[in-house]
Automatic annotation (TrEMBL), chains A, B, C:
Record-level GO cellular component terms: plasma membrane
Domain Ammonium transporter AmtB-like: 21-389
Gene Ontology terms describing biological process: ammonium homeostasis
Protein name: Ammonium transporter AmtB-like domain-containing protein
Keyword Membrane annotated: yes
Membrane topology classification: Multi-pass membrane protein
Keyword Membrane attached: yes
Amino acid sequence: MPSNYRSFRKSVPWLILFLETVFIILFYFSFQRYDALIRNISYTDFQDVNNMVIFGFGFFLAFLKRYSFSSTGFNLLIIVLGVQCSILMEGLLVLLQEPNKHDPKIITMAAVSMTAVAISSGAVLGKTNPLQLIVMTVVEIIIFHVSRWINKRFLQVPDNISMKHVHLFGAYFGLAVSSRFAEPSPRSEKNASTPKSDLLSMLGTLFLWVFWPSFNSVLAYGDKTKAIYNTYFALAVSAVTAFTLSVLTTKDGKFRMTHVHSAALAGGVTVCYTAESIDYPWIAMILGLLASVITILGSFCLQRCLNPALKIHDASGVHFTFGLPGLLGAVAQVVLLVIKKWTVLPSLGYMVMIYIGAFCLTISVALITGFITGLILNFKLLKIIPVSKYFEDQFYWEFPHLAVGF
Amino acid sequence: MPSNYRSFRKSVPWLILFLETVFIILFYFSFQRYDALIRNISYTDFQDVNNMVIFGFGFFLAFLKRYSFSSTGFNLLIIVLGVQCSILMEGLLVLLQEPNKHDPKIITMAAVSMTAVAISSGAVLGKTNPLQLIVMTVVEIIIFHVSRWINKRFLQVPDNISMKHVHLFGAYFGLAVSSRFAEPSPRSEKNASTPKSDLLSMLGTLFLWVFWPSFNSVLAYGDKTKAIYNTYFALAVSAVTAFTLSVLTTKDGKFRMTHVHSAALAGGVTVCYTAESIDYPWIAMILGLLASVITILGSFCLQRCLNPALKIHDASGVHFTFGLPGLLGAVAQVVLLVIKKWTVLPSLGYMVMIYIGAFCLTISVALITGFITGLILNFKLLKIIPVSKYFEDQFYWEFPHLAVGF
Amino acid sequence: MPSNYRSFRKSVPWLILFLETVFIILFYFSFQRYDALIRNISYTDFQDVNNMVIFGFGFFLAFLKRYSFSSTGFNLLIIVLGVQCSILMEGLLVLLQEPNKHDPKIITMAAVSMTAVAISSGAVLGKTNPLQLIVMTVVEIIIFHVSRWINKRFLQVPDNISMKHVHLFGAYFGLAVSSRFAEPSPRSEKNASTPKSDLLSMLGTLFLWVFWPSFNSVLAYGDKTKAIYNTYFALAVSAVTAFTLSVLTTKDGKFRMTHVHSAALAGGVTVCYTAESIDYPWIAMILGLLASVITILGSFCLQRCLNPALKIHDASGVHFTFGLPGLLGAVAQVVLLVIKKWTVLPSLGYMVMIYIGAFCLTISVALITGFITGLILNFKLLKIIPVSKYFEDQFYWEFPHLAVGF
């Protein structure tokens, strides 16, 4: 298909160069006072988040047999492109709201919000070409920040809380986008993993697992130490439970690697909302257990019932890895709030409504805009790839090496 | 063997769920004051130790051809399960001893003590099913803490010193357990590595190598900076020496990868005991050199003479990677103490006896209880696996992918 | 070739032991005051640099099909050997210059200067035996420190600036050494990568990418925070640009993995010189963009024109990965200085001359001494390996595993 290749050359580089030029010009006008951007920033936090989104997610998504170059490579591309867009949006929103206040965490928050993009790209893994991925990244980042701004403007949800919806937003945006793509043939040989690629994905998973407490502590507005150890306990219990449920749900009573990958991280996603406010480790542990349960049952049910019905193909299971645990976490936040403030606050009902409203709004925005983005991505202009070329590194990358044994 | 699989389903999940329930209940009663548990804790220390036990050991043990899923997966399982047990035991012992004092390092120390479990699991790598591993983990953690308590109660050995026996305890406990398992057939094809799996193990080794100074600094009660750089020097010299001795001891005068894996880390194990008290880098360097020598000579002698005689099959060479260097470190500690306090202390003899007593006691406890644990693990109830299924991922994990090329 | 193997046994171990003995003796005499060596040192900085040189470069260079053991193993060997030599040289130079001053960063700086060795070893990757590598390491480290001393003594270039030439020195020293080695046959099957080994190299690259901001902040003498974020912006833009230019320069309009590997890091190398003095992110971003352009165009031109003409075989492309971006960074430093101090300083011309003199001097020293070192390394005594054994792990390492599928 040489004509197709030539057309990639005509599109991808110019789109990237155009975006980079726009970004550099906007940076020129936006950040005259560099010091304000980076004053008081914690490098350790920033580095840990970076480790996760660049290294962790890159390898977490590298489980497809013939798609490991694209998983790690395109992940790098969209993260580094998106983070620039995200810094600009964060800066813009801060400027719009409080022109005189400077949030020292703009850059770190921009890196955190890239999680949404990494998750969404997981949902359409192998089905999008770089052109589509880039468009999706930019659109998603802009919408995510707008969604946060709506949350803040109309529901008075503080920035930290709305940032915690990052997993939910990423998962449902990705799913909605994914629903607009043709399903791969169920007999496709390429939509599968090998033991080697599963192991690479395990490498990414373990890396994410180890750094997840840092991630939640970055999002915590209160007691960061509590956030760290609650996350650790939730992750520990969810990893243990993952093994239990994997044996119970598989046909032969064996462990399934993808169960471990998803469910080991589920605890971290769930506890994200409440990490800094949980006062006893056992609560975090129970949340971790529930997260693992919902993930593995979700993977069981979704893949059998819901996804085929809705014609959604969720390439790396982001729905049950990030979507459902995120939902559980948001609900847990409300429940814990109710329990904690039962006697204290007369305006409890109002607060509960705000919290529920916030995550419902976020999911709705994610679903609707994701759906529209999915439609846009299927414009002919973006050179949609044929189903037969799904999950195929060789469509995008040079393979001078014979692909034997790959 | 479908009947066997079904029976795994009947045992593993329920054991894990039972343990998790017990842990959550005990956490409920033990840590009402969460703040005390995490006050003043250093997250960097905790994170580095976690990086080592979860990521580092997971891949360090992934050198077997067909056992990389189990190496990384089961390592995650037993570490996250064991760490909860360990936190409870630490909390209990602190409570027993000084009800009013709170050690801010309980969680970090619990993670450190998981090294013992990771090392022991290395000794029986490929020969135990998850059921046996879980039982071994819980038993080992409890005994390790009891052994530390005996050390403290009867020999007045401070907590930090007794924690330094973690490598020794892990190695000898694992060896004693291993002696109760049937030896694999020497012609077993599966008890071998491939270049790829050796490289994965190198990845784990380099990760452990880089983080080892953090590990020793966590255990240091005095000058943490000194502990870090002494460890670094010892590690550097032991890595260099590893290459030297590997060429000298192999048949063709080539390097052997497993020599590099073991001996590069030996310096860190040896210097653990004395890292914070060594005043000159050259002493640390000489200790690193000796550690490497003892490891490679040990690997040469043990595998040829001692192990066949005692019918011990040491799957990943923990005896010479952690056991012998640990022993050397314990002796070096006594020697350095004698040299340092020759003139100062009249009660030197008494102190020397205490130090020697402490590590002899630890090793004895490890050997005896390890032997008993080995006997327990071979109860029919725990579904011992046949020798033909040793070192075999497919016995435990789903392999939807054809295992060709694995 | 059994006679050859036996002779490795007669040389490598004794050379290493001799060097270690010398190092230990020199440490004995040099660092009586250990505290001075490690006082006020930042462990985080040291650990990040170590992560990069041990883990990052080890895997960055592991892209050759049959040379991954040697890439990671020998990298460990020369780094840990070289760092001891480097600490001694740093200590000696500090002593020569200011006997009463103690630089608390000696150890960290020693680790930083190992980057030069890692880069040079990349230029001769697969063509040198361990004997040659060890000699090259020791010679290079000594010359690098002497070159820095000349820079300081005769051009009054401060230590931090001269340390920033580390990439330039490493690249041009390595290229000059490489020019003295026989070229591999262009049809050599072994001088190639596989998808798996490219992915391993991607792992190393992503690791280096994430830690590069730390590296530049260690070298910054002024505002470390600025250095970190300028580096980050430069890296982000250079990674994005790498994808653009890769599509534009390859035959089919596809991405080339090696382009991504080199160009993603180029921004970090370029911005190294100016990271702490750039006041606006957009300048760092433009530098990152230029770095990526020069790297990919360089890779295009050098491999087609210059290298064949000069008969240089640059095994891992260090010329365009570290050499050209380093050159660009050094020029950018001068240009930014001129722009910044245009009106302020009458002695601007003098300063510009010093800066230009410094990097010209460094490159000249690197090229000349590298050339001489290349000649020395080809002495018969050092057992030069035949071209047919280039890029071959099995020449140095035991392969008990059948090498099938490797």
